[in-house]
Design goal:
Rossmann fold, Helicase, Ruva Protein, domain 3, Zinc Finger, Delta Prime, domain 3, 5-stranded parallel β-sheet, two-stranded parallel sheet
Length: 321
């Protein structure tokens, strides 16, 4: 008999359901556990980059707080789906004014991606937060807390989530490899840490895709599936450019585009990460970073990616005395 869990995407299958299962963010977890024990807490904003546990912590806290009564006391909405004032005046306000049947009298409305809400919707939300403050608490998740208006920020405690460190990511990788009976070597683990940049959701998806190709996960499979180049290949391209070997730099660029199918922005992002590690003169680093910024702007504005990337390598070569 096949378990229902086996049919779930791994991002859901391995999502913690209680605060004690959450990896990393220890300081925030301790505060949330105190709130659960006291059965009272303020409005909150969970701020930080994608895939580091904001939504997971909100749902895990609700599970610990309400247990079997969660459906009547916890409402989750994705603000990026309905960004306008109608969702605040309708669905949010309707739930906020209802009486909770749970043992804990305070209800939670969790607005994921709240930084996507329009200004009008945020002002309507502010009024709803004021009006129903005695029976409803709000948790707002945002990649950029600065996009949430000041009147809402002043009514909330802001928790800033940090990217997970290597040790926490390795614990998570080990958990999946043991449960899924996978083999993974140290180079593949380092590759997962490199491509995920602390984003466990991205890491989990890459691991699941890699496991479907082979139960023995290698560094090569990881980079192939994630459409990322190895750090040494990016470094090699930049070193050829700084040594004025333009033909070889272009050959490395061809490999990144044709072999890995990388976009211009992906290449620039990896170049920015690797330039910090290359042992070259600091002035040359400044020139390269300046060129990366200019090239990134032109590509975002719609210029041809290939021409701009080759122009960037040419500018780097020309800037070397």
């Amino acid at each position: 008999m096949i378990s229902i869990l086996s049919d779930l995407p791994w991002t859901e299958k391995y999502r913690p359901h209680n605060l004690c299962e959450v990896i990393g963010q220890e300081m925030i977890i301790n505060r949330l556990n105190d709130f659960v024990k006291n059965k009272n807490f303020p409005n909150m904003i969970f701020a930080g980059s994608a895939g580091i546990g904001k939504t997971t912590c909100a749902i895990a806290m609700a599970n610990d707080l309400y247990k079997t009564d969660i459906s009547s006391a916890f409402k989750e909405l994705n603000a990026s789906d309905s960004r306008g004032i109608e969702v605040i005046r309708g669905e949010v306000k309707q739930f906020a004014k209802t009486i909770s049947l749970a043992k804990v009298p305070i209800k939670i409305i969790f607005l994921d991606e709240a930084d996507s809400l329009t200004a009008d919707a945020q002002h309507a939300l502010r009024r709803t937060m004021e009006k129903f403050s005695s029976e409803t608490r709000f948790i707002l998740s945002a990649n950029y807390a600065s996009k949430i208006i000041d009147p809402i920020q002043s009514r909330c405690v802001v928790f800033r989530f940090k990217p997970l460190n290597e040790e926490d990511v390795k614990k998570y990788i080990k958990r999946i490899t043991v449960n899924e009976k996978l083999e993974i070597d140290e180079k593949a683990i380092n590759a997962l840490i490199y491509i995920s940049e602390g984003d466990l959701r991205k890491l989990t998806n890459v691991m699941q895709a890699a496991s479907m190709q082979n139960k023995k996960i290698t560094e090569e499979i990881i980079y192939e599936i994630s459409a990322r180049a190895r750090p040494k290949e990016i470094s090699s391209m930049l070193k050829y450019a700084t040594s004025k070997n333009f033909d070889k730099a272009i050959a490395e660029l061809d490999k990144l585009i044709l072999k890995y199918g990388m976009s211009g922005e992906d290449i620039l992002t990896q170049c920015y990460r690797e330039i910090q590690k290359i042992d070259i003169d600091e002035h040359i680093k400044l020139v390269i970073i300046s060129n990366l910024g200019e090239t990134n702007f032109r590509i975002i504005e719609g210029a041809n990616e290939r021409i701009q990337l080759e122009a960037m390598l040419a500018n780097i070569a020309l800037s070397i005395k």
